[in-house]
Amino acid sequence: MGTTSIPAHLVKTTTDRGFTHLPPIPSEYGGHVTVSESSAADGPHVWLRATCPVDLNNPHGDAKETAMHLAADNALRVAEQLQQTVREHYQGWGYDGDYLGVNEPMRRALELIGTKCENYTEGASCVDAPTRSPDAPDSAGRWCSCCIARTALAGGELPAPTETPE
Question: Is 0.90 surpassed by the pTM of this model?
Fold first, then answer.
């Protein structure tokens, strides 16, 4: 296997106490944000620190820092909020949308899965058939594994589960 290069913003350093720290991410106004491991009696936590200039018109002047001590579940919620806000930003991305480098591995995964629907041969697929669903109780009504995987990897919405008669 080849070596995987770790992006610079994900290269960890470890403190004498064994906690990892990640490099600062610069702000557009002269500050930065940092993330580091922490602990608490009730489980894993992280420190999220934001530093910014006291005067935003003077990015090299005096700075102030705010620190938040977040439980792991709340840190994940913040990460999800950031991702959603960036993905859905009203100004759009302004680039090819592959900042995280996922397009190439996704393209390869979709290539491996293929585009051939196991149930249809003439251009249609399980996804196009309103009588099929990914969770149908019998194989005759269920999407094929190719269509389920392709839809999930491509970020498509799977239809709501169908109601089964009691």
Answer: no
